[in-house]
Here is the input.
Amino acid sequence: MENRSLVTIAEHSKEKILYLLEMAKQFEKNPNRKILDGKVVATLFFEPSTRTRLSFETAVNRLGGRIIGFSDAATTSSSKGESLKDTIMMVSNYADLIVMRHYLEGAARYASEVAPVPIINAGDGANQHPSQTMLDLYTIYQTQGTLENLNIFLVGDLKYGRTVHSLLMAMRHFNPTFHFIAPEELKMPEEYKIYCRQHGIKYIEHTDFTEETIGDADILYMTRVQRERFTDLMEYERVKDVYILRNKMLEHTRPNLRILHPLPRVNEIAYDVDSNEKAYYFQQARNGLFARQAIICDVLGITLDEIKE
Amino acid sequence: MEKTNKQALQVAALRNGTVIDHIPSEKLFTVVSLLKLQEMDSNITIGFNLESKKLGKKGIIKVADKFFSDEEISRLSVVAPHVKLNIIRDYEVVEKKEVHMPDELRGIVKCANPKCITNNEPMTTLFHVVDKEQGILKCHYCEKEQNKENIKLL
Here is the structure.
């Protein structure tokens, strides 16, 4: 049987990405359907992630499926030393699909190789988080009407930020121009710049974050600059207030500009931005529901034609 | 005269089997364990710290009545890529083989990422060779790249 698991977005072709976005659009029109009637979905969260879990579970519930699972590995037999394989094999007996989050990198790949049912990777350590990338792509598509030829500005922690790396790789199909805005210590890693050059992705690096820098942005993707990421705390003190977006910086930006953030936000977007119509991070989180409904249906073999109304 | 004797000693005759030559001395015992020679019943001669113009000191292994598969030989590519194999039949070298880096390395290399699933679960590691020239490997599971120089064997 073909393994329909979703482990990383990097495996998806341009056509497949556009297909999934079209599916998400259908679910945005109507997220409440009985497509998963009689199906059981397991959500196995070996590491807590309330936001992602609630989004997946809402997606299943609104499609009429049932949910089993756990939200913290401390309450399961993996705390007794059970291997991941054994847990996955056991749960595969009960569920039609497994959504899993794990603290170890490569856990979802391995699970997809041993499990007889499809696996959706809901985050494996610092490695991949494809449903976040899908919702980011959907949000960009929804707000700009296209994914092609956009100026995308990534701001903040570009070194450890898993979401910006995945987004960068998924956008390779759409001729973007990236601007990387980060402090010296959190710059985009060399391997991703090599990736850009290999795939003909244009990028410009900045260390300053000002109104002038973001003048021609279509998408401003903000991330958190975390104190614990710095080896030099003097450097942290120096830059911590530099990468904060304030409402007055948006005055001369493009009208189509939208501000995204994977959330949770701490202080990198000032609260006065929230009421600006360019602020889009809460709608972005809502899109997680539709993107995940599309992913769930796709791995279960449910096609776009079947969900069109 | 003395020199010839030493030469003779280094390549003492093997009727049938494989001579693995030009092994860097410090890799000799790694090669032994990669080929699982300690589990074999064949007559095996292992030369260690022999003189070599190319390597300074080299190792040599002669295994009687054993012809390694390409898969077995490719395991050596990570530690000793310049090793030469002479296939001997009836005292004659009938074939010379070199080591080629395979596209995949299964169950040979340990992932350097402590947070990789392969270091935390009873399972076989798998690496994709992304650059044969520079010896860059990518873990199939955690997707981290590692350089040949820093590779740890299982």
The mean pLDDT of chain B is 88. DSSP finds three helices and eleven strands in chain B.
